[in-house]
Amino acid sequence: MSKNKLKTEKPESKKPRGNDPNVLKQDKEVEVKVKELVKDERTHKVLGVICLLLSLYCFIAFTSYLFTWEEDQDKVFRYSASLLLMDMDSVKVENLLGRLGAFVSHWFFYKGFGIASYLFCYLFFILGVNAVVGRRVFRIWRNIKYILFGLLFISTTAAFVSMLSDFPWGGAMGDAVNNWLIGFLGRAGAALLLLVAGLSWLIWKYNFDFKWLEEKLKAKPKPAVAPAAVPEPAVIAVTPQQPANTKEKEPRRKNGLRESGVSVIPPPADNGELPEMQLIERADASITLIPPANMSASEEEVEEEEELEEEEAGPLLYIEETVEQTASRNKKKPNTEDVAWEIKPPVEEAEDETEEEPVRQPVQMDPYEPTLDLRDYKYPSLELLDNHSTEKIVQDASELDRNKNQIIDTLKNYDISIQKISATVGPTVTLYEIVPAAGVRISRIKNLEDDIALSLSALGIRIIAPIPGKGTIGIEVPNVKKSIVSLRNLLASEKFQQSSMELPIAIGKKIDNENFIADLAKMPHLLMAGATGQGKSVGINTLLVSLLYKKHPSQLKFVLVDPKKVELSLYKLIEKHFLAKLPGEEEAIITDTKKVIHTLNALCIEMDLRYDLLKEAGTRNIKEYNHKFVQRRLNPQRGHRYLPFVVLVIDEFADLIMTAGKEVEMPIARLAQLARAVGIHLIIATQRPSVNIITGTIKANFPARIAFKVSSKIDSRTILDIGGAEQLIGQGDMLVSFNGELVRLQCAFVDTPEVEKVAEYIGEQRAYPEAYLLPEYVDEKEMEGKEISLQDRDPLFEEAARVIVQNQQGSTSLLQRRMKLGYNRAGRLMDQLEAAGIVGPNMGSKAREVNVKTEADLEEILNDIG
Ligand SMILES: Nc1ncnc2c1ncn2[C@@H]1O[C@H](COP(=O)(O)OP(=O)(O)OP(=O)(O)O)[C@@H](O)[C@H]1O
User: Fold this and answer.
1) Are residues 263 and 331 in the same domain?
2) Do 52 and 20 lie in a common domain?
3) Which of the four pLDDT bands, split at 50, 70 and 90, describes residue 395?
4) Residue 749 C-alpha to ligand 1 middle, in angstroms?
5) 594: domain range?
6) What value of ipTM does the predicted structure carry?
7) Is 530 within any annotated ligand binding site?
8) Cα 712 → chain centroid
């Protein structure tokens, strides 16, 4: 028997149990009619239009009332509500909207809130707009709060200032509150209260920063705090007023650690650098690592170490930078090490209060403010960006209907009937959500994915069966008229403006038109792929420009790698503000593969140095570290500095991997694994998302990924672990995989001239003397074969030897910090010390062994070498 025959028989036989679409549909419709009506978007629209008309009606009636109240008031008083039912000729009112207008206005103004009644027009207006548009254009609850406050405040204030007027400026409500206030607080008290309430509201709403006030106060000379008030960069005034017996008074934490941060510090939990080690830093900044097994056995040693350290360290030091010093720093090299710092005795460390009383001098210290490096830096304004004209989402009703019908018909061809279909119109695609009829299995639709896409015969159709968490099936169909999402609009949005993210990036708009703004610091790295011409470069510009709108040059540096040589060249203008480069390099934007390898390795060194700093400060990540530095709890003389975020952007990764392979992959993998905690983040883009380019190691460390249109399903799987990116429609249409979710977005658009304008605007402002310098890196291979000769000693050789022997610690970073050397020079010195037998061989991440135990022995060796 044929399938068809069976079907035609069914309706005539017994009542079907859910397989016949027609009958089922009818049943459903009868059941859910009222509910559906309430939920129906048309009902919302009708209500919205009513609200808008109400708003207009009240506005006209109120405005007319302002001019006609005198004539109409008597009549309303006399006839009250019966005025509405009276004969037209017997009572004539002046209000433009007749008796109802006069009556309503009287109620709102006279019996209600006076002039504040206009807020009701606003209320109806926002309710109406939201309902008609079908989404939250205005935030209702927030506005209701403002309206309630406004009704109370405006009516009371109006009543207060117009006590002698006949017009009901404050209405009955305003009069009542005003009278009560005057009785309770007196006239002056009431005036003051209203003033305070008004100002508080303004401050709450606009959050003025009062910087001018702060600057005015700061400009006044401070009472002399210390001799270092004379601007004298690079001079250190040390005032160790702490009594010699400080060590007895230094409080210990429960776990035996001292607050000062120069004692036993637990290693950072997540850096993976020194697992299971305890780190002891002595007063002279030497570092000792003790394996945990020895911990209890060597407790005496630790005590001894601490005592030694306390004797040598003297008091814990606090640091203050004066305004003048900052100014002089701004003129000179804006490096914290180069600043005149005033070093203060501690104020909180004493245990014995009575004994310490005379020594305690509470010193008012401003927190360190990194942005003072370039204090008059102005963030780019939104005016520099264009409002691309097609921003408005075009909702073509006939197109929607056509597509709806086509989807229903297509599904019918496969014997799939549906209960409900709804549409959400996005900037580039419209999402049709389908609820299949009872009994239709979603897997059936999923299996038919390709056939359905084919039947709908439009490019860029994507079927999501089911939409996660919703139990509906989504079919995304491209719009005939697409809208451009301007970056300007995203940056102007409250979500971006008010964002407290560390590195906010405005990526694009979702299908429901919600702005998608994410924190690169949380991602913590981003992988982007897409075939050529699908919107990658625009995407990179979008990310970079978003960061430029939110960050100060002191807080963020970019390392830009552009093998294509042209894509990122615009950013050259902001080299001295926002770019980082290798020392001695001409160009900050790296285009040469060899230099890329050097730069990546230099970034790894920067990462290691940052980890050293974090360890020394007893902090686990850049946020904690910078917080401590800002609080002036870290001493720049020990190499501490404010750490800006570093964002590495590689525009064509495939190119690099093809030419340099492992040499590029290794440092990238290392950075991707470890750099997040120290504020180094990676954005890597590629045209060719094949497995030999996006390797397993790289993929594993890039949980956030963006795919623009790619050429095949395989490419889509390589980048997103799922197909779909091959069905995108290009021009910034993208899929973002982040936090385990896959979201389709329209990437925000920013054109090259806009980027240029922003770069020019920043570039014209006062800058640092040069780009942020990354540590030096010398290729091991280049150094190979070069004999380390003691004849050719570094002029700092003897000093370095003394530092190492005094501290009994063979660590390159100790030399770097103590002698303010670059990594390379410190490394070469260490090799020479090894050649002279002063230290042992390199032991990887551990410090080298120091073979010379006393300074006397060292002097002998130095004499021998001559
Ligand atoms: N978000 C967007 N909104 C609208 N149009 C876009 C968007 N992104 C890209 N386009 C359009 O697509 C064109 C190509 O984009 P883009 O230059 O970013 O591609 P690409 O992937 O970087 O190409 P290539 O790899 O060849 O450099 C742009 O000139 C622009 O017209």
Assistant:
1) yes
2) no
3) low
4) 9
5) 487-766
6) 0.97
7) yes
8) 33
